[in-house]
Specification:
alpha/beta, 7 strands, 7 helices, four-stranded parallel β-sheet
Length: 152
Amino acid sequence: MRFLCDEMLVRLARLLRAAGYDTYLASGGEKDSALLHIAREEGRILLTRDKRLAEAALPESVLIEGRGVEAEAESLTRNVVLDWDFAPFTRCVMDNARLRQATLDEIDRMPAQAQALRGPFRACPACGRLYWPGSHVRRMSARLSGLSAPEA
C-alpha cells in the first residue's frame, strides 16, 4: 500500500513512514489537481481532511477524522486494513527514502550511547539522517504495536 497525505497530515505521514509505508507528503500549496494526479499515477491512497478532495479521489481516498496523530491513525485504520507493524523503521520519516545499513563511518558519527547499542544502525541515502534503536524507537514501536492491537 502506498499513501499520499495532504499537507495537514504531517504527523500521520511520519507515523506511516515509521511503520514502513511509502508515504508521499504534500508540500505547502500543492494544488488539489496535482495531488489527484500524483495519487492516480503512482497508485497511492489519498489521505485528507478535505471532503471535496476526498470525494474527487474516490474510491482511492480516505477522509481522515479526529485531531492528533493517534485519532488520525485510528480513523485511517477504521477505513483501511493496515498493519502498523508492516516494516518498522525501514523508511526515513522525514523524506520517505528507504533506509540502508549505516556504514562504519556513519556509526562513528553517532553518539557514544547509540554506538553501544546492538543496532540495527541505519542511514537515509537522501538526507543523511542516522537511525539507531534508542528510546525514541522503543516509544514508536510501542505506539505502532498499540495501533495494531485489536480493540477490546
